[in-house]
Design goal:
66 residues, alpha+beta, two-stranded antiparallel sheet, 3 helices
């Protein structure tokens, strides 16, 4: 019975230890488009400000064909 308790405690505590390092490197691309954006000279902006300074989605820049 004592052995079963120790095994149960060990199984309960093991997930709490966590990872000692991040799973993914910080230098790796975040998504599948990162290499394309880097080759193109940067990513397309997600937002642009209008005449009043309010952020709006940059749909024209994002959907425009090059």
């Amino acid at each position: 019975m004592l052995k079963v308790k120790w095994i149960a405690i060990l199984l309960a505590v093991t997930p709490l230890t966590g990872c000692y390092r991040p799973l993914f490197d910080e230098n790796l691309p975040r998504n599948q488009f990162a290499q394309h954006d880097q080759a193109r000279g940067g990513s397309t902006p997600m937002e642009e400000t209008d005449a009043f300074g309010t952020p709006q989605p940059a749909l024209r820049q994002r959907l425009m064909k090059e």
